[in-house]
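in:
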């Protein structure tokens, strides 16, 4: 899954693709490098990111989905949003997957949209609100707590008639660096949920803070964690650097 950010302040500056020419060039390269899915995000969820109105996010996402769908009709399009109105517009314009960092917690309208369209849905674990989801959170046992929370949400989704569910343990959200690595060590336990697992480590602070480097220097660390996740039977890898991830898959498959 290649990351296409159409926001102005995503944490990894090279991933910001606001101009259509650069957006399409990046999408083309990602597909050529082996991306199966392009994940479009119009709202930056990095720590301290500015809040933007839904109308701005909607326009960014809708226009991007239109462009990608026109130029690359066969690629799977995922939209990273927690807002119902954005998700609905994205689906109507050709998005195939909704990728929700909130687990349906931030916007009641998103639950209605997901229940109505019943397209594949990525359920991510996080805690707090959109303003506090990066703050540290106290867990009794992080692996057990994450599995339990996801299990409850999966049942809620199935009660809505949504059965095509992927899970994301939410590395970097509501977790300290140490908690992220504790969760990483327990990745295998997430298979108890019997859903495909998506991981998103790409250039995140759990890598560069631990190594004392910058996001720009965190590709090697990203590859190490993705390799570990692949060996623990994770299915989807959300990355900025598609070529390197595809090489990992090719080497280990």
């Amino acid at each position: 899954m290649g990351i296409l950010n159409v926001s102005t302040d995503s944490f990894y500056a090279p991933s910001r693709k606001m101009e259509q020419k650069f957006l399409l060039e990046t999408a083309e390269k990602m597909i050529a490098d082996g991306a199966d899915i392009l994940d479009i995000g119009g709202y930056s969820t990095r720590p301290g990111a500015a809040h933007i109105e839904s109308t701005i996010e909607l326009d960014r996402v809708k226009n991007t989905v239109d462009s990608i769908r026109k130029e690359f009709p066969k690629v799977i399009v995922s939209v990273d949003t927690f807002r119902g109105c954005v998700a609905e517009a994205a689906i109507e314009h050709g998005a195939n997957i909704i990728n929700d960092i909130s687990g349906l917690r931030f916007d009641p309208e998103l639950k209605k949209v997901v229940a109505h369209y019943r397209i594949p849905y990525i359920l991510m674990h996080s805690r707090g609100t959109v303003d506090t989801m990066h703050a540290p959170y106290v867990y009794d046992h992080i692996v057990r707590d994450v599995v339990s929370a996801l299990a409850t949400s999966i049942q809620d989704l199935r009660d809505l008639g949504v059965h095509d569910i992927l899970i994301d343990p939410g590395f970097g959200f509501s977790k300290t660096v140490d908690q992220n690595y504790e969760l990483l060590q327990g990745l295998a336990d997430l298979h108890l949920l019997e859903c495909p697992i998506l991981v998103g480590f790409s250039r995140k602070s759990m890598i560069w803070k631990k190594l004392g480097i910058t996001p720009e220097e965190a590709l090697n660390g990203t590859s190490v964690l993705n390799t570990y996740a692949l060996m623990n039977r994770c299915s989807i890898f959300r990355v900025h650097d598609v070529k390197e991830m595809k090489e990992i898959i090719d080497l280990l498959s």
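note: The beta strands are 2-5, 37-41, 76-80, 97-100, 121-124, 165-168, 198-199, 236-237.
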